[in-house]
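A favour, since you know our structure tokens better than I do. It will help me judge whether the discrete encoding reads sensibly. The space below this message is yours for that.
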Amino acid sequence: MNEALNADPVELAKFSEQAHRWWDPDSEFGPLHAINPLRLGWIDGLAQLAGKRVVDIGCGGGILADSMARKGASVLGIDLSTKALRVAQLHALEAGTPNVEYREASAEMLAQEQAGQFDVVTCMEMLEHVPRPESVVQAAATLVKPGGWVFFSTINRNAKAFLFAIVGAEYVLNLLPRGTHEYLKFIKPSELAGWARSAGLDVLQTQGMEYNPLTRRYRLSGDTSVNYLAAARKP
């Protein structure tokens, strides 16, 4: 993996190894299945997906991309994990999902090729897994049309996030495999907002996402101290 490519070979190997389990809601990808209706509803509520051209950066096995296509968007999912993309393509074929395609490409590569071509750009649960997240934010801003929406979700960096997202999720509740996240790669909302502004985006809304271990349910809230989503627009 060359230095120019904004990807961590260890992270890619980790997600490739688990790729065949992407669509199993009882697997380590269960939390993604559980939060997907929340993410989808929030994105659709702001961007009205029907009829829009969307790119999903770091799409993995296609959980979000597939659901956005079912909302009537024309979706391109990109990732650097060949195995995850094969799983996504196979699922789209088996499920008969219309208007979704997948491609092995980085956000930066696609930005050089298709600048200003998308109404909506999504990049969820991915920034904390790459060496240079600010580069992905810049690429997302390049890909979106003026007036278009860019959506991010990631994990805050503080003691509570360490306790909840790593100790709690990976070691106590076993929601995720151990080693899924590295604390130092977590991103404060202020950092994300700074990168977005530098890339020419206006951050218009942030939302927290909370997990209740008793009900095993997630909900959107105003608490961005652990998991959070950010919606930005290109003027």
Summary: The chain has one domain: 9-233.
